[in-house]
């Protein structure tokens, strides 16, 4: 098959979160299976150009219709670690992608509506006719709308769209001006509850809703999160739209790239190890303690948190877990950056307050290299998310023999099976500790069970850690499911 991925991120050249990892990892898996895969991305001024090989002009003057006129674009082409990527660069006073950031502008809906229009125009003008357009998140939600309302009448009637939602919280809202900018125009037609009209704001169109309504199939990034979005609050107002379109909605668990995340081959850790040399994991713990100026203590479990410090990630429970670990004579390492000033100020205060404590280190920022070292050196990792569509942290940690303590939501529930209470997996197939409520007592209870096992039954704790290492959360199984979906919708 010929598949084109259209997204706002692709790791490592453009990465703000897990979306970039998924786009790259899935693309590589599909290519390994023999499919032809290309990616279309914005050409941001601040992307990692050092990860692009052979960057050159592919289409010199792409004229993209916009507000009744045109914006001239250059489309560049290059290889990102083997993946063929096209980068769209608009030449406009709006400077859509020349702002030194990926997201966070007031006109983000306009920026990505233009990107979506330009991506379709590039496919049309360059005579590319992929079997599948795989679009990701709200930034590309208008692509299936424009394809099936406009571009199919200009020679793109055979293209099919799979739309993947990575985060329902960010949906993309705009007024009627976006309809006029893209050439969709007919306000009364699109401001219809069955099309683009937002379910709660009668004056807004909803990009993500458009993606759901117009695509051939919709996925989210774990089976349990698909249920949560459809039946619970995790759809952030799109539950009814998902219900109406439930016949074409499903969840596929994200995979991880074991070429990047593998303790046996990881160049970022001091002492590579595997299931058969698990005892060498302790050497990485010692190296991490030395690196972060922690007390060298073999008898102390090392608990970690890696991720954004924000409400989604359950930041209040991260804070409580930190102090509870110290109370239980454990060590704690945190690696993450805050998304809000008040959270940033809070954790900087804690960092200053705890600076002289030899059993805790707070690294407020993000370092890919340090993340690898923490996964390899920690005994336990806490993932207390309020919601978690898939979660990569717990999957990576298990590969490194680091036992996850997670809240039972989204993909966390699909991947972590409780040592004490799981009734669907035998003891030898369980992988961590799960709690369900959002209060301090819940995370304490799960963390206590984990620490008690570490202190009182070290051999069983090691068994649990090694059981997690044996699971395969590569793209192999997820890739099978995506290919099956591609085949299903291309023959509709």
Characterize the structure shown.
- The structure is a single chain.
- Helix 1 crosses helix 17, helix 9 packs across helix 12 and helix 10 packs parallel to helix 15.
- By secondary structure, this protein is α/β, with parallel strands linked by helices.
- The radius of gyration is 23 Å and the shape is elongated.
- It folds into two domains: 269 residues, 3-Layer(aba) Sandwich (Rossmann fold), CATH 3.40.50; 199 residues, Rossmann fold.
- The longest helix is centred in the N-terminal third of the chain and has 18 residues.
- The strands form three sheets. A nine-stranded mixed beta sheet has the order 3-4-5-2-1-6-7-10-11, with helices on both faces. A six-stranded parallel beta sheet has the order 14-13-12-15-16-17, with helices on both faces. A two-stranded antiparallel ribbon has the order 8-9.
- The chain has 17 helices and 17 strands.
What's the story with the biggest beta sheet? 9 strands, mixed
Derived from helix and strand composition plus strand pairing, the structural class reads: alpha/beta
How much strand content do the residues show? 15-25%
> Going across the major beta sheet, what is the strand order?
3-4-5-2-1-6-7-10-11
CATH superfamily of the largest domain: Glycogen Phosphorylase B
Average of per-residue pLDDT values: 96
Molecular shape: elongated
Low-confidence segments, given as residue ranges, are none
Just name the CATH architecture of the largest domain. Answer: 3-Layer(aba) Sandwich
Query: What is the number of beta strands?
Result: 17
CATH class of the largest domain: Alpha Beta
State the end-to-end CA separation.
Answer: 15 Å
Helix content: 25-40%
- How many domains, as an integer? 2
> How is the CATH topology of the largest domain named?
Rossmann fold
- Figure out the total of helices: 17
Computed CA radius of gyration, to the nearest angstrom:
23 Å
């Amino acid at each position: 098959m010929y598949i084109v991925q259209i997204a706002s991120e692709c790791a490592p050249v453009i990465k703000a979160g897990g979306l970039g990892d998924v786009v790259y990892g899935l693309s590589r898996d599909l290519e390994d299976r023999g499919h032809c895969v290309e990616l279309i991305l914005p050409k941001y001024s601040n992307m990692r150009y050092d990860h692009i090989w052979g960057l050159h002009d592919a289409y010199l003057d792409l004229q993209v219709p916009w507000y009744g006129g045109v914006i001239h674009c250059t489309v560049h082409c290059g290889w990102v670690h083997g993946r063929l990527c096209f980068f769209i660069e608009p030449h406009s006073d709006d400077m859509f992608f020349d702002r030194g950031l990926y997201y966070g502008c007031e006109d983000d809906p306009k920026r990505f509506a233009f990107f979506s229009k330009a991506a379709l125009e590039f496919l049309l003008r360059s005579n590319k006719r992929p079997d599948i357009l795989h679009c990701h998140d709200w930034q590309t939600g208008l692509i299936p709308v424009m394809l099936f309302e406009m571009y199919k009448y200009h020679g793109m009637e055979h293209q099919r769209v799979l739309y993947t939602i990575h985060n329902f919280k960010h949906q993309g809202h705009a007024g009627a001006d976006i309809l006029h900018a893209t050439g969709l125009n007919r306000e009364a037609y699109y401001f219809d509850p069955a099309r683009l009209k937002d379910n709660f704001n009668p004056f807004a169109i909803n990009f993500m809703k458009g993606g759901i309504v117009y695509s051939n199939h919709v996925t989210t990034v774990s089976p349990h999160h698909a249920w949560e979005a459809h039946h619970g609050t995790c759809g952030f107002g799109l539950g009814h739209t998902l219900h109406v379109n439930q016949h074409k909605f499903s969840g596929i668990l994200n995979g991880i790239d074991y070429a990047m995340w593998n303790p046996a081959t990881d160049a970022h850790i001091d002492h590579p190890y595997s299931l058969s040399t698990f005892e060498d994991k302790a050497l990485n713990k010692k190296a991490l303690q030395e690196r972060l100026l922690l007390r060298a203590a073999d008898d102390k479990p090392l608990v970690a948190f890696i991720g954004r410090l924000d409400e989604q990630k359950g930041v209040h429970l991260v804070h409580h877990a930190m102090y509870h670990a110290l109370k239980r004579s454990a060590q704690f390492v945190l690696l993450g950056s805050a998304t809000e000033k008040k959270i940033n100020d809070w954790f900087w205060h804690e960092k200053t307050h705890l600076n002289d404590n030899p059993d805790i280190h707070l690294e407020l920022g993000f370092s890919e290299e340090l993340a690898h070292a923490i996964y390899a050196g920690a005994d336990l990792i806490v993932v207390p998310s309020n919601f978690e569509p898939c979660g990569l942290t717990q999957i990576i940690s298990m590969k490194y023999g680091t036992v996850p303590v997670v809240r039972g939501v989204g993909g966390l529930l699909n991947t972590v099976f409780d040592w004490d209470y799981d009734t669907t997996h035998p003891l030898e197939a369980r992988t961590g500790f799960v709690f369900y409520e959002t209060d301090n007592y819940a995370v304490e209870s799960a963390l206590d069970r984990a620490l008690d096992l570490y202190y009182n039954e070290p051999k069983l704790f090691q068994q649990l850690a090694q059981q997690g290492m044996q699971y395969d959360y590569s793209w192999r199984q997820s890739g099978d499911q995506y290919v099956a979906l591609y085949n299903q919708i291309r023959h509709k």
